[in-house]
Structure prediction request, 86 residues.
Amino acid sequence: MGLLLTALVRPRWGDHHLRRATVFPLGMYGVCTLSLATILGVAPLLSLARVFVWISFGARLLVAARLLSRGRAAIANPPLQEPGAG
Prediction:
């Protein structure tokens, strides 16, 4: 709940390097909920856990795609060096 509130109060729009720090807990919440639902045998909680896992997987794919896109752009357009800078 705290992660959601923080994301709503101080959103990181666009490409921010801390976005990975938001995506990781999503996956952890999903896995923990999945484990708890399996141990307790609560079917609605199991369904919710599966939704969390897929949401976190999709978010992780989006962050990874953006990271790869930035890396490819950095390779294609390296920063210019001043003459004699080394």
